[in-house]
């Protein structure tokens, strides 16, 4: 049986969605149809939402799950009239929080992903630009400005990780692809040597690397399992010799790789 | 008075953090020290966490707020012994959900940001690579493969938006910077004409654009307010003439811009 899950918000819906996904991940045997509905910020939209939920209830033969982060209790009340199971996040936690903080909620809408504090937001965008300017093979290498320099074989996940660190945490991360030439020297590339403290290494299982490289350049020497095995072996040797902290990314998502780097290096989110 | 808020998880902590930030945003008058602690996945780490919370309670003279998404109830119980106010997300919602779904939770840890379904995760990484390959001034323009083509003046926010759409939603978004040359022609750039249905325009207040451009190239003609006013005026005219949906990004974060584009275009997250 299919169940429909709605993630409803007066803002972007990212928080309701994140929480809903976390909870639904605990019920792997059930098939969920997941629908995110942002910007439900007035009574009229809430009434349309009720209709939509009821249609799904009818179609599924079971009431939909609703995960909402709506600040306005009048809007929440309208939604609660729908035929649904409601995990009402603000409704559940706001009033105990008000009591704990001895302060009234401002009941302001869609604050968590808004530009509340321009300085913070701009740091994130600067960090994205920094990551792009200091990506693989870029000629500009502002390693003095970098908070982190990710190194690793080509296609081991450096670029998406740098971008995620920038967008999510405002971290200025550069990346440097370790090439065969670098490995032949048996020492750290000269350009990196002054910045050893900022370095973090990525590694990956050679099989997986070969698969990824084959998508880019099928049947090339670059994508061969032999080449991948050789590079990864040498690169891991380098990490250990130079005492560079490193992580095998094979089983991890960008979110997990980024979080683990933050924990290992002690870097702090730029607020 | 300062209050400390901990976002604690057995996984990346992204969900606990998102929810905690949403709730704390409602209390703008209180100063919070925010600490995210990922990977609290055994009893020993939980005991250390209790000490850390109690130290903060002592230092602040008020009990910390704890927002947790820990699946294992034994770990949650340890944490609940700390001197804190606990917004216990899984503790609150899991058991009613089990009842509603007539199914037991799998109590599996850190699932929401893990690579559960490789196909989905790979689409996100492909989308990031696509955005990078089809960014501003790229020679490769695989507009036939794109799900969305963002257009706009240089520095109006196209690149970070494309990257966010890729990372968050797995959307393949290309971007095309509208230049003065394009504007002189008084028609859509030829390379875009076959893909009008995929186009979405960004605009921005000329003042803001001038500020952003001045950071990149101080005191240039490119960054002058006169030039920015001219470009934006012409670009908005083009959007209206060609009936391209568009959004003024001045007051919005990348998350908000991306969500609004998803809503307006009806694009769906790639799962």
From TrEMBL, chains A, B:
The answer to whether keyword Transferase applies is yes
> In Gene Ontology terms, what is one molecular function of this protein?
ATP binding
Q: Where does ADP bind?
A: 152-159
InterPro entries according to UniProt? Kinase-pyrophosphorylase, PSRP
What reaction gets catalysed by this protein? [pyruvate, water dikinase]-phosphate + phosphate + H(+) = [pyruvate, water dikinase] + diphosphate; [pyruvate, water dikinase] + ADP = [pyruvate, water dikinase]-phosphate + AMP + H(+)
Cite the entry's keywords alphabetically: Kinase, Nucleotide-binding, Serine/threonine-protein kinase, Transferase
Q: Which domain of life is it from?
A: Bacteria
User: What Enzyme Commission number(s) apply to this enzyme?
Assistant: 2.7.11.33, 2.7.4.28
What family is it from? Belongs to the pyruvate, phosphate/water dikinase regulatory protein family. PSRP subfamily.
Q: Per its database record, what is this protein's job?
A: Bifunctional serine/threonine kinase and phosphorylase involved in the regulation of the phosphoenolpyruvate synthase (PEPS) by catalyzing its phosphorylation/dephosphorylation.
- This chain belongs to which protein, by name? Putative phosphoenolpyruvate synthase regulatory protein
């Amino acid at each position: 049986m299919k169940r429909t899950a709605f993630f409803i918000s007066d803002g972007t819906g990212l928080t309701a969605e994140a929480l809903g996904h976390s909870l639904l991940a605990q019920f792997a045997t059930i098939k969920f149809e997941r629908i995110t509905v942002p910007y439900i910020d007035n009574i009229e939209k809430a009434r349309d939402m009720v209709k939509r939920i009821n249609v799904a209830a009818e179609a599924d033969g079971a009431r939909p799950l609703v995960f909402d982060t709506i600040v306005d209790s009048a809007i929440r009340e309208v939604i609660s009239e729908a035929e649904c199971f409601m995990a009402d996040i603000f409704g559940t936690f706001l009033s105990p929080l008000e009591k704990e903080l001895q302060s009234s909620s401002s009941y302001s809408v869609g604050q968590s992903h808004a530009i509340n504090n321009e300085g913070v937001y701009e740091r994130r965008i600067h960090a994205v630009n920094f990551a792009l300017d200091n990506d693989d093979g870029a000629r500009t290498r502002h390693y003095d400005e970098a908070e982190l320099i990710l190194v690793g074989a080509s296609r081991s996940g450096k670029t998406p990780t740098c971008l995620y660190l920038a967008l999510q945490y405002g971290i200025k991360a550069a990346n440097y692809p370790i090439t065969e030439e670098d490995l032949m020297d048996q020492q750290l590339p000269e350009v990196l040597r002054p910045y050893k403290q900022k370095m973090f290494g990525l590694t990956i299982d050679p099989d997986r690397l070969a698969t990824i490289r084959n998508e880019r350049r099928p049947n090339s020497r670059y994508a061969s399992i032999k080449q991948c095995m050789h590079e990864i072996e040498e690169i891991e040797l380098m990490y250990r010799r130079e005492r560079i902290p490193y992580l095998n990314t094979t089983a991890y998502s960008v979110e997990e790789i980024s979080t683990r780097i933050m924990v290992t290096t002690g870097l702090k989110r730029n607020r």
